């Protein structure tokens, strides 16, 4: 299988999952805060941290990395939707909510990346 097909296969799973997280969050939480995008980005950050450590340890091959990290996590996480939602909150003058979203997303993303790497390091 060529590399681009591995990326495509991963994206075929990651993109619908991101969509479903967004739909589920809107259905369950009914709020203004974009929980679906936050959950997708946080989950992708955790998994990417794990995968990065697994690649470094040599326990994850390059092709599996293309499938999971580039394809799946790349389609699951979304910088563009995060940026759009942040802009929308700011334009609606929900500045406290926008600031909270920014800080929570960036903080959780970085923290969960390190947590994923720590889990991989302990497990491998």
Rg value? 16 Å
Question: Given the helix and strand composition, which structural class is it?
Answer: mainly alpha
Name the beta content range.
under 5%
Outline, from the CA principal axes? globular
* Helix proportion: over 70%
Terminal CA distance: 27 Å
> What is the β-strand count?
0
Average of pLDDT: 94
What does this structure look like?
The protein starts with a helix and ends with a helix. It is globular and about 45 Å long. By secondary structure, the chain is an all-alpha fold. It has five helices and no strands. Helix 1 runs parallel beside helix 3 (62-76).
Tag the structure with descriptive keywords.
5 helices, 124 residues, single chain
How is the secondary structure organized here?
Layout: H1 3-29, H2 35-56, H3 62-76, H4 79-91, H5 95-123
Helix pairs in contact: 1-2, 1-3, 2-3, 2-5, 4-5
